[in-house]
Write a structure and sequence with these properties.
By secondary structure, the chain is mostly helical. It has 5 helices and no strands. Helix 2 packs antiparallel against helix 5 and helix 4 packs across helix 5. The model has no long low-confidence stretch (mean pLDDT 85).
C-alpha cells in the first residue's frame, strides 16, 4: 500500500512542479466543495459527533451558533474560490505570453 501511495504521490508532485498554476485549481475545487457543503448543510462541514468536533468547530459553534459558523465557512470558501481562480487565470495568461 505504501508503494502505491508513494508512486501516485510522486506523479502528482512531478505534475505540480512542472505546472504550478494547476495547484490553484485544486484549491478552487476544495473551496468549492466546502462552499457547496456549507450551503447544502452537509453534516461533515460541522460534524456534531465525535472527539474531532470538539477540537475543530465545537468551540466556535458553542460561541457563535451553527448558522454564523456556516456563514463564515461559506464566505471564507467563496473568497478562496475567487482568489485561487483569479491567480490561476493570471498565471495561465502570464505563462502563455
Amino acid at each position: 500500500m505504501k508503494e502505491y501511495l508513494t508512486k501516485y504521490s510522486d506523479i502528482f508532485s512531478g505534475f505540480i512542479e512542472k505546472n504550478p498554476e494547476y495547484f490553484y485549481l485544486i484549491i478552487f475545487a476544495i473551496s468549492l466543495l466546502f462552499f457547496i457543503g456549507s450551503i447544502r448543510k452537509w453534516d461533515w462541514i460541522i460534524n456534531k459527533s465525535g472527539d474531532y468536533y470538539e477540537r475543530r468547530t465545537g468551540f466556535w459553534v458553542y460561541i457563535f451558533g451553527e448558522k454564523l459558523v456556516r456563514l463564515y465557512i461559506t464566505v471564507i470558501s467563496a473568497i478562496a474560490m475567487i482568489t485561487s481562480l483569479t491567480i490561476f487565470i493570471f498565471e495561465k495568461v502570464s505563462i502563455s505570453k
